[in-house]
């Protein structure tokens, strides 16, 4: 039996567990029907931009899986909680399949949780390092 997460902390923990295991349907279940979803970055990085629907969010996570190698490193350093908000800091290292280059990414991910669903997702990542890794 799967326990449905309810608190901001439980939602964030479930997000990383489902992301890490590649459970896209389970991951998408954590999101609200409409989401303030933003990943700023260079136009040559396929997943940057804003999204708001589950289909668009599914496309985002699918792009990560088709554009990148499995993570060489993925570490969560800290989770800071304040009511409906959580900020997670960490570090990741991936390779870009199309160029063969790798990038290391120190990131901060700001979640907003409303009614036990992710309603806000703002990723702040090393957009320069990622853009360089996507450049031939």
3D architecture notes:
This protein has 136 residues and is an alpha+beta fold. The protein is built from four helices and six strands, in the order H-H-E-E-H-E-E-E-E-H. A hairpin with a 2-residue loop joins strand 3 (73-82) and strand 4 (85-95). The mean pLDDT is 95.
Largest sheet geometry: 6 strands, mixed
Order of helices and strands: HHEEHEEEEH
Spatial arrangement of strands, main beta sheet: 2-1-6-5-4-3
Stretches where pLDDT is under 50 for at least 5 consecutive residues are: none
Q: What oligomeric assembly is this protein in? A: single chain
User: Rounded to an integer, what's the Rg over CA atoms?
Assistant: 15 Å
Mean pLDDT: 95
Number of helices: 4
Work out the number of β strands.
Answer: 6
Estimate the helix proportion, in percent: 25-40%
Which class of secondary structure composition applies to the elements?
alpha+beta
Which of globular, elongated, flat, extended, rod-shaped describes the shape? globular
Q: What proportion strand? A: 35-45%
Quote the distance from N terminus to C terminus. Answer: 47 Å
List the defining traits of the structure above.
6-stranded mixed sheet; alpha+beta; 29% helix; 136 residues; single chain
Summarize the structure.
This protein is of the alpha+beta class.
Topology:
Layout: H1 8-21, H2 24-28, E1 31-39, E2 49-53, H3 54-67, E3 73-82, E4 85-95, E5 102-114, E6 117-124, H4 127-133
Parallel strand pairs: 1-6
Antiparallel strand pairs: 1-2, 3-4, 4-5, 5-6
